[in-house]
Amino acid sequence: MALIEARALGKSYRGHRAVDDLSFTVRPGSVTGFLGPNGSGKSTTMRLMLGLDRGDGATTFDGVPFDRLDRPMRHVGALLEAKPFHPTRHARNHLRMLAAPNAIDDRRVDEVIEMVGLTQVGRGKPGKFSLGMGQRLGIAAALLGDPHTLILDEPSNGLDPQGITWLRQLLKHLAAQGRSVFVSSHLLQEMAILADELVVIGRGRMLANGPVQDFISHSGLASVVVRTPDLALLGPALEALGATASTDDDGAVVVRGATAEQVGDAAHAAGARVHQLMTRQATLEEAFLAATGLAEEFRGTQQADHQVEDRR
Description:
The chain is 35% helix and 25% strand. By secondary structure, it is of the alpha/beta class. Among the domains are: 4-75 and 147-217, 3-Layer(aba) Sandwich (Rossmann fold), CATH 3.40.50; 223-280, Alpha-Beta Plaits, CATH 3.30.70. Helix 3 (106-115) crosses helix 4 (131-143). The longest helix has 16 residues, at 161-176. The protein is elongated. The N and C termini lie far apart (54 Å).
């Protein structure tokens, strides 16, 4: 099983630094999510990893660069764009064409067609496929060589909810077999379920790298929710802790800057009754927006949003 090591990756376009000194590791047996705002350099990074773009740094798969791998599809499976195929070549023949130079027989072609749910349209022309079906064919191509490493750029694009669930289960299963899975996605709720580790970039630079839960907890966005009829007593006690409190729409008090234990002790000391006390963890989406808010390449303005509303 391959350890992916990316070191000092970099790429410039017309003086603009699209990817800037990115280094990270993708370990076997895990799904590593690759996150960043639109235009942050995710696709360029993946192309650099596979040697499809020229730039700085290097990526190795168990110490070997992609262009030195013998029969590379048997080592690394990749999906970098939607519908990467000739539109009039039958889907099965498209896979057979990819399989031939990698010494992959037709039985494996039929296996992956069945694996991705395209058996009934295997002899159809991909030019007539929906975006979701095209993605499934691209995933089949990535799986063709039974590789130990997968690099997938937005593989869930175009998939319906059932397809997204299928893809999640597939990638988790492949990682559980000891494979390295590196996948980008803009579906943050899905990534929170799928990924074990994260690489988060903004404007081509590293913002965070590590376990998903660490990224969320380090955001500092966790809060304590408390319900009390004695806010007049509890409020000053929370201020003494240095915590901030606000009232939610449903009347609950949201406390930041203190733990549930500290809030409970403060309520007890102040003689305030507490009907509910719980910690509310931040979501991956909240942590991501907090981490990347200043690193968006393309950002609309509230004024523009209001103009859109006015035209409706």
